[in-house]
Amino acid sequence: MPAKLSVNLNAIAMLRNRRDLPWPSVTGIGRLALAAGAHGLTVHPRPDERHTRHSDLPEIRALIDDEFPQAEFNIEGYPSEDFLTLVEKHQPEQVTLVPDDPAQATSDHGWNFVADAALLTPIVRRLKKGGFRVSLFSDADSAGMTAARDTGADRIELYTGPYGSYHSDSAKAAKELERLGKTADAALAAGLQVNAGHDLTVGNLPALAKRIPVLAEVSIGHGLTADALEYGMAGTVGRFLRACGW
Description:
The chain is an alpha/beta fold. Helices cover 46% and strands 16% of the residues. It has an 8-stranded parallel barrel, surrounded by 6 helices. Helix 2 (26-35) runs parallel beside helix 3 and helix 10 packs across helix 11 (233-244).
């Protein structure tokens, strides 16, 4: 089965937040994406609420529950106590833990699973006890997959930013793709499922999906939102679904 597509709404929220106005509607755009065939919605509610606001979360949860019960809600973020409380309140199907500093513009690296094991293991245990699927943001580093599994997580999410950054250098992109592929191979061997996200486009998704045919999910925001300015949200979701192999 091809990778499922989760639409990250952060860029939509950032556009809305430029003005003290309720549009573009984060929930409304999420509805368009799901109606066009997206399998889920992703948000990253940072402490300063500079894009997704805490008030968006109950609306997105209700949208999925009431209109698209087959879809999934993925909340990602650094596992502070405030974040964990937010997750437990809004009950996403998946929680993706990222090692972000609150001041970072965007996620730009994965966990060090060996060094961060003491932090991650009890948090993963808490989330799993709450019934959540847990995914951990990961660099392309096959050596860390046993330690990632030992935290109790269900999945890793491959950080594909470097791969996406080589959009004009096919040789470097191919080298990075193989690093991602070997990491995915190691994760699967360790018993983990594999997600991916960051700077994925309709141009680089097919190669990723071919190298990692068991990819479970891709979470895409910036590239998808940029394409939506040209093709509309419904048309863009269709383009990304086809790029995933649907």
